[in-house]
Amino acid sequence: MSAPRLELKVVAARKAAERYLASVAPYLTGDPHDPGDGYLVSTLYYDKRDLAGYRAKLDGLPRRTRVRLRQYGHEPGAFVEIRERIGPLVAKSRAPVELGALLARWRGLAPPLRLDGDDPDAAVRERADVLVRYGLQRATIVTHYRRRAWVGRWDPQVRITLDTRLTASPPPERDDLWTPSTREILPPTHGVLEIKGPSLPCWAASALAAAGLEPQRYSKFVQGVNVLGGRR
Fold it and tell me: In whole angstroms, what separates CA 221 from the centre of its chain?
């Protein structure tokens, strides 16, 4: 599991977000995962049939756990992630998975997970398997967006991202999270800035204040459920 970190989100007009990024550019360098023009992120979220995780997010419960599958672009591989909210901090565990095999298993179409004791990621896969299969969770929605990313020039634990073209779609029926059938969850004129790290750097906070931007509660998962009519 990664060390717990602070995550701040700001929904802003893209022009305002670009001005903010320009103001903090001296403190940042390109994220090695970003080729320069961003990359596609598709995330499949799991929740119970009564959307208990969705409701916990709306209620602002201080401790929350969520399982999700994340795919970059149209690559055949993916990552399973367990995201845990502990008060103001977020911790995340992730492990690479074979997307098609895992989707089949969690649909009940394949045998239970067999673990390799020598695999350092086995514990993450096992815990995710337990949370989904025995926690009676089901695939709920998929979100898609284009992400640009930077890390701190002097502190690589600091990461700033800008997500745009945010859409949502129902769970996939095939072994690829991407689908052209999507609904917008944020106008194309806006994006989501995220600032992540052990703490909020002074330069990042000062630039937010100077730009008139304020952190706020925002969840792509919640917005996706809303636009797809999944509220109960």
Answer: 9
- Cα 146 from Cα 132, distance rounded (Å): 27
pTM for this predicted structure: 0.92
Question: What's the CA gap between 191 and 128, in Å, rounded?
Answer: 30
Its sign, for the CA torsion 17, 22, 27, 29, is positive
Question: Rounded mean pLDDT of 3-20?
Answer: 95
With a cut of 80, say whether residue 115 has pLDDT above it.
no
CB 48 within 8 A of CB 182: no
Domains in the chain (CATH in brackets) are 5-227 (3.20.100.30)
**Residue 216, CA distances (Å) to 7, 8, 9, 119 in order:** 11, 7, 6, 39
Query: Residue 103, exposed/middle/buried by CB under 10 A (0-12, 13-18, 19+)?
Result: buried
Q: What angle do CA 176, 52, 2 make, to 5 degrees?
A: 65
Q: Which residues contact 230 (CB under 8 A, 6 or more apart)?
A: 51, 54, 140, 141
What does R_g of the chain's alpha carbons equal in angstroms?
18
